[in-house]
Design goal:
The strands form two sheets. The chain has a five-stranded mixed sheet, covered by helices on one side. The protein has a two-stranded antiparallel sheet with strand order 1-2. It has one domain: 3-Layer(aba) Sandwich (Glutaredoxin). The protein is globular, with a radius of gyration of 15 Å. It is of the alpha/beta class and 173 residues long. α1 (55-71) packs across α3 (144-160). The N and C termini lie close together (6 Å). β3, α1 (55-71) and β4 (76-82) form a beta-alpha-beta unit. It has helices at 55-71, 88-97, 144-160; strands at residues 26-28, 34-36, 44-50, 76-82, 104-106, 124-128, 134-139. Helices cover 25% and strands 20% of the residues. The chain is built from three helices and seven strands; from the N terminus they run βββαβαβββα.
């Protein structure tokens, strides 16, 4: 069954050749270290807002781990942003329980990390290009296969110099 991405958004007029302003933000990780989105320039970044009480968030964690494990040493990383106020020990225990191997940042005030990364639902996933440009948004659960299909398509388009129209995408089954 094909799952259609709802709410995919391309950043600032890619068709016209206008480059979008890179997205950057800074939040603490679970060790207390301040992390910046710009640390990951050169790779695709999957920014995923989630919460421990969110069933679809729990459903997608194994796929996010799988995607991160397949790609983090090569071309893409996942960054999880916890979107709730919980004691750090509880968040660390949750991360251990779900074997989340990707970086998890804390957002205790439950505000968006950047004005262009709004959170209308959970889970909420954004894809940021290797240059730091926001290229896609997805509300709801997402799979490793969907992420790989989207990034593969965008990478091919970049290599061939083609710019794609802003339209919902279909993932491969």
């Amino acid at each position: 069954m094909l799952k259609v991405w709802v709410g995919m958004v391309l950043a600032l007029a890619l068709n016209a050749g206008v480059r979008a302003e890179p997205v950057d933000f800074s939040l603490p990780d679970v060790q207390g270290k301040q992390r910046h989105l710009s640390e990951f320039r050169g790779k695709w970044v999957v920014v995923n807002y989630w919460a421990t009480w969110c069933p679809p968030c729990l459903e997608e964690i194994p796929d996010l781990v799988l995607f991160h494990e397949r790609h983090h040493t090569k071309d893409a990383v996942v960054i999880g942003i916890n979107y709730e106020s919980l004691p750090i020990e509880q968040i660390r225990a949750f991360i251990d329980r779900y074997e989340m191997t990707y970086p998890v940042l804390l957002n205790a005030e439950a505000h968006t990390a950047h004005e262009r990364l709004s959170v209308d639902a959970l889970p909420m996933t954004y894809i940021v290009s290797p240059e730091g440009e926001l290229v896609a948004r997805h509300a709801g659960s997402i799979s490793a296969d969907e992420l790989e299909a989207f990034i593969e398509k965008k990478t091919r388009a970049r290599v061939t110099g083609k710019q794609t129209q802003a339209a919902p995408l279909e993932a491969k089954p």
